[in-house]
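Page 47, continued from p. 46.
Same chain as before, 300 aa.
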Amino acid sequence: MRTEGTGPEPRPGTEHTNSTGSARRPGPETDREATGRAPDRESGQANGPKVVELSAATTTPWQAGVGVLAPYDFALDRELWRWTPDDVSLHVTRLPYVHVPVTVDQAAALSKGKAVTRAVKALMAPEPLAVGYACASGSFVHGAEGERGLHRTMLAAGAPRAATTSGALIEALKALGTDRIAVVTPYVDSVTDRLLDYLAEHGVGVTSSIGLGLLSHIWKVTYAEVAHAVHEADHPDAQAVYISCTNVLTYDIIAPLERELGKPVIAANQVTMWAVMNAAGRRAVARGQSLIDVAAPSAA
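Result:
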């Protein structure tokens, strides 16, 4: 039994009728009334999602490769990427683990020729344009000759071009026209002393130095702690300040510290990436960092 003036509810899939009783079929007009737009002809379905096809002419960007050898406890891969231009990929590998704290013994173990040779050879498959040895203490622990030997070992193992952190430091100081610096390290005194001896071999004077005395977990040192140490170490006679150790975070504080001190502030990861990118025919990426700016085309 039906109530007067009402009709049966429409079944799914049936046509609706208008007030005259004539059938009204779905079409462009009804679709437009319901949705406010015409059917999507590109997809072949009314109001369906558009299908965007990739053009066969789309060009795949070519990625240059740069290899990086890092200590087994290196924790700052992301920081290295921040100095890396978009058309370069980093191929990072670790040197073998040794069960010793951050001491002279650890630095010596990280610079052993056989381990470096194996690590470089492991990086050769993706054909990097250059290889960087990203360890400050491992590249200064045996002095200037030790750093040169490390560089030779990398080339002999197949690296087309090579750079070490401590070798890059000397090149960076030359680029900046600087030969008197203040030094900040996270190391115990015995390791810091090796760095000071290395700098002296290259005729670089050290006005003052501060070591944080850490034996482990260096990557956990905060920006505030590093900035405080830089201000403490700075000296009126220092032409620049160097922050040693590739396990110390520095990217975001270099430019602000330079503005505060009125002089260049350079850091281990920064000089490493600056040098390895130069070796690869690229330019490291950063804003407001004196070392990176000095390599700009306008800086002549």
